[in-house]
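ARCHIVE CARD
CATEGORY: sequence design from structure
SOURCE FIELD: tokenized fold
FIELD CONTENT:
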């Protein structure tokens, strides 16, 4: 029987000082999926925290790279190589400035759109042909530097909606794994 395992990597910055940042929404979604599969994250030799289990019956390895965002590709590539997975069975969960707050979009392949985490993952994997679950965080207000915006915490109003957004994002990952990209796009776009 062919291994149908997926690697799901949530992107973020490690450490408690970054936990509530918009840039860490990928970590937040990975935490939600870990809760759904009933598994806790553990530190492993790939410079990531990992958790394993089944999401809707599909075997998954969840990862939260413990490198800063712009170096997160190394741990993702190390895990993909260790589990001998095709790039198409890698799903990266990440924040997206160019989507309105709370929007979710799934896609296979594409550019990095200025996202340093995606740039790192693409370079480390040697291919852009992995799945992405883009979680909209909106644009910075006024002339605020996008870097300051993504490294800022969600506003109190945003935090109220965040559990529902993270839940829908985890639902979208589940549908992607069980029903495929087109079905997930139809349900969540």
């Amino acid at each position: 029987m062919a291994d149908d395992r997926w690697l799901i990597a949530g992107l973020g910055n490690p450490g408690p000082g970054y936990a509530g940042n918009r840039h860490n929404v990928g970590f937040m979604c990975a935490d939600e999926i870990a809760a759904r599969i009933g598994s806790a994250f553990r530190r492993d030799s790939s410079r990531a925290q990992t958790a394993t289990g089944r999401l809707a019956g599909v075997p998954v390895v969840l990862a939260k790279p413990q490198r800063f965002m712009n170096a997160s590709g190394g741990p993702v590539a190390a895990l993909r190589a260790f589990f001998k997975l095709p790039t198409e069975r890698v799903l990266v969960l990440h924040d997206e400035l160019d989507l309105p707050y709370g929007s979710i979009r799934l896609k296979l392949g594409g550019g990095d759109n200025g996202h340093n985490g995606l740039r790192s993952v693409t370079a480390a994997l040697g291919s852009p042909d992995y799945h992405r679950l883009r979680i909209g965080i909106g644009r910075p207000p006024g002339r605020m530097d996008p870097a300051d915006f993504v490294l800022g915490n969600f506003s109190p109003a945003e935090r109220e909606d965040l559990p529902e957004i993270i839940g829908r994002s985890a639902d979208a990952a589940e549908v992607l794994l069980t029903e495929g990209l087109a079905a997930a796009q139809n349900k969540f776009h």
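CARD ANNOTATION: The mean pLDDT is 93. The first helix runs from residue 25 to 37.
SHELF: design records, drawer C
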